[in-house]
Amino acid sequence: MNVVELIQRKRDGGRLTADEIRGLIQAYADDHVPRYQMAAMAMAIFFTGLSADELGVWTDAMMRSGEVLDLSDHPLPRADKHSTGGVGDKISIPLAPMVAACGVAIPMMSGRGLGHTGGTLDKLETIPGFTTTLDPPDFVRILGETNLVLAGQSETLVPADRRLYALRDVTATVESVPLISSSIMSKKLAEDLDALVLDVKFGTGAFMQEFEDAQLLARTMLGIGDAHGTKVSAFLTDMSQPLGREVGNANEIRESLEVLAGGGPTDVVDLTYALGTEMLLLAGAARDEEEARDRLATAVANGAAMDVFRRVVAAQGGDTKVLDDPSLLPVAANSHTVTAASDGVVVEANARRIGVAGMRLGAGRATIEDVIDPGVGITLHAKRGDRVRQGDAVAEVAWSDPARLEDCLALLESAWVIGPEATPPPLIRERLRNDHASRQ
Asked: Rounded to whole angstroms, how far apart are CA atoms 182 and 178?
């Protein structure tokens, strides 16, 4: 295989054969193709794209570059949810145990935060002792015991994606729909799913800021699901302001526990139930939306969802006492209040600025090597549409390092825009289903 020839052909808009794609991906996973050549290929794809056929093979080759889970012996239907990432997005944490309590197995592989968006694994690891690093046998065992597992990508699952993701991050090739969609879908398809629900975000705090770009990404992933015979649904959701009232790690776990206990902010609850309803429908665990929502509500009201989460926390080494007493979770010792600059209505609570401020505070990472401070975070007291007076608190900052606080304050204070009036946009703009899901 002449890699230079493949790079040249793709650079000039040509197509790669299925055998060439499979050979390239496996050779890269096996360290037979150097990083600089794969970086050149990623840049060629960035500019010229992949055809639908190429993308299907590329995703399949990524998925098969290592182990693929075989969960066919599990007696329940298998479903998962994936979010493209956003500020304050803790939805997976209450959602997964709620759906699992309704009779669906959830083999959830999540990621870490990078940049202004948070990571589910970082949030979960604020629970003392909780481990998200599981090898495939432990992953399968815990799923069998609890119908839910919350873990990261192992060394042996989709290794080509792990390598290529890190390479894209340092070669300015992240913003490529074929590379984004194949990265997401290769990991999810490796979970041996019956159904997948995607939360594709757009807006200031999202990776894809424009609705049309998010829609293209969603449609591309739906197509990959069709090519692999998997039911896939996508929700296009607004990320122009943070989800919920908490941005950070331990504080987002507290907010997730509120939802599992029957409370929590309206937007977090609404999105959790919308995604959960779709997961139950695609998995065949409910006949219609009304039944699905009733089942989720019952699982919360009777404590079944919290019980599932408790069993998962215990199975993955975590201290379950924090579920009964969230004050045991880390919290920074210092606080600072951000106030409204004038009277009026909050026109904007800019998610990207708040997310970047949280990252600078220590709640996120600028590079993958950065260490998370689990106790720092931002609590929002005012969001779009809320009326405030000059001097009212719009946010409370929990901080540990005064230099980090100083570094984020100007950005945070500029995140709130006050005007005469504002109407919050709908949280969910659109729902899409691929052909396999539409036949549900």
From this structure: 6
